[in-house]
Write a structure and sequence with these properties.
This protein is of the alpha/beta class. The chain has six helices and six strands, in the order αβαβαβααβββα. The strands form two sheets. A four-stranded parallel beta sheet has the order 1-2-3-4, covered by helices on one side. Strands 5-6 form a two-stranded antiparallel sheet. Strand 1, helix 2 and strand 2 form a beta-alpha-beta unit. Helix 3 runs parallel beside helix 5. The termini are far apart.
Length: 188
């Protein structure tokens, strides 16, 4: 084999591997389990199970996200945290119908909370995203917080809107300051 043909063959193999990695990163599904320990955690929340989903960027995992829904259900969460970047730039919210179908299934499993990411804002469809999620039963924490109760104990769950949102919105520092003044001493 000539050097040129060998180089061409090696280049094609590298391109195929790169394409496979891109496809896997967009459609691969993995679960990472972490056990976190906090001093001061209210006793009633010991063992509280949260599933966090982030950075889907419009990806789908099986027909109607069946693989993703199945993976979340298998974890038996008590809360599902959607932590931004569910939309993607340049798609103008085309992902919303599939996302709506997904969250309608997730809210059947556990309470669902959402905070925005930079790609959600960059998509140009953030207002439609918040409306879609809210209509499906998701609590969008946009520089806001809620009290969660379990076993007679309470903690605060706060959500900071991505700073890429409107210029006139509360900054993360302002929000945290407000949260600390409105829920002093609460486990947050």
């Amino acid at each position: 084999m000539t050097k040129r043909r060998l180089f061409t063959a090696a280049l094609l193999v590298l391109i195929a591997l790169f394409a496979a990695l891109l496809l896997l990163s967009k459609h691969g599904l993995s679960v990472t389990r972490l056990t976190l320990e906090f001093s001061g955690l209210p006793r009633g929340f010991d063992g509280f199970k949260i599933v966090q989903l982030s950075d889907l960027h419009g990806s789908e995992f099986g027909q109607d996200n069946a693989r993703l829904i199945e993976a979340v259900a298998a974890e038996e969460p008590e809360l599902i945290a959607l932590t931004g970047d569910f939309l993607d730039e340049g798609k103008a919210g085309q992902e919303l119908p599939a996302l709506e179908a997904l969250v309608k299934e997730l809210v059947k499993l556990a309470p669902v909370y959402f905070v925005s990411g930079n790609h959600d804002w960059a998509s140009g469809a953030a207002p439609e995203l918040f409306e879609t999620l809210g209509a499906a039963g998701v609590n969008c924490l946009r520089n806001d917080f809620v009290y969660l109760e379990r076993g007679g104990d309470v903690l605060v769950l706060g959500g900071v809107d991505d700073p890429n949102g409107p210029a006139d919105m509360e900054t993360p520092d302002e929000f945290i300051s407000r949260l600390r003044s409105e829920a002093p001493g609460a486990f947050t």
